[in-house]
Structures are given as structure tokens and as C-alpha cells.
Design goal:
The protein has 4 helices and 5 strands, in the order ββαβααββα. The protein is α+β, with helices and mostly antiparallel strands and 140 residues long. Strands 1, 2, 3, 4 and 5 form a 5-stranded antiparallel beta sheet that branches.
């Protein structure tokens, strides 16, 4: 598995897909694997990146944690904790940094995210219909 931030390449017969196949180091490797997989037919390749786990931390993480802390405290001591805890933006940012570092260190990401533009890879000439190959200049 490649490291977070590493560029990877994949392939698919569909231009718009959530499931790109392969995890190739180069575009050329993705083309070679795609040609083998699809018997020389038309397919697409795309560039992607293996993300860090912290990319998927919830947006309302600090609010959720504070709310759960308040609920737990309320169960023990009652309504006296209605407005507790109150955090600052700085405290929230520190918590996000802490959890992001923890996630990136301890949660491997077993997938990659396509973030390029799909590129059409034409069929190999021997896989094309004879009339199409001739129209493209293959025969006279």
C-alpha cells in the first residue's frame, strides 16, 4: 500500500465511476494493466491520491465531543451543567490537530481517491473492427 499523498493511477471502462481498478505507480502501468484487463478495448485511466485518514474527520467533531461530555456530566450531576463545556476556537483547533495526528498515525487508508480527469485510452489497433482501423489510416 502506498503512503498518504502518493500519486496513484487506475483504470475503468466507465468514464464516471466510483470504483476505479488498479493502484498503479504510473500512467503507463495503468494503461498496461487496463489493456490486459479489457483485452485491448477502449477504457479510461485516471490519476488519484492516497488520502490521509484525517481527511475524513467529521466537520462538527468538536461540537459533538463537547455535547457528549455535557450529556455525560448531566447524567452524573444534573441540570447544573446545561451550558458546559464551553470551548474556544483555539481549543477546538488544538483538538482537531490532535485527532488528525492520531488518525494519520494509527488508521491506514486502504483506498485511493481519483482526483484527476479521466483520460480515454483508445482500443489497440488489432482489437478494432477492420473498417474502423482503415478509416483511422490503418489500411488503404
Amino acid at each position: 500500500m502506498s503512503a498518504p499523498g502518493t500519486e496513484v493511477w487506475g483504470y475503468s471502462q466507465e468514464r464516471e465511476t466510483e470504483g476505479w481498478s488498479g493502484e498503479c505507480a504510473t500512467r503507463e502501468e495503468a494503461i498496461a494493466e487496463g489493456r490486459a484487463e479489457y483485452d485491448g478495448d477502449v477504457f479510461y485511466v485516471i490519476r488519484g491520491t492516497r488520502p490521509k485518514a484525517s481527511r475524513f474527520l467529521p466537520a462538527f467533531l468538536c461540537e459533538d465531543i463537547a455535547e457528549r461530555m455535557g450529556e455525560a456530566a448531566g447524567e452524573e450531576v444534573g441540570d447544573i451543567v446545561d451550558d458546559w463545556p464551553c470551548t474556544t476556537k483555539e481549543a477546538d483547533a488544538a483538538l482537531v490537530r490532535l485527532l488528525a495526528a492520531w488518525a494519520d498515525e494509527h488508521i491506514p487508508v486502504p483506498f485511493w481517491v481519483a482526483d484527476g480527469t479521466p483520460e480515454l485510452v483508445p482500443a489497440e489497433p488489432e482489437q478494432q473492427e477492420p473498417e474502423l482501423a482503415a478509416a483511422e489510416g490503418g489500411a488503404s
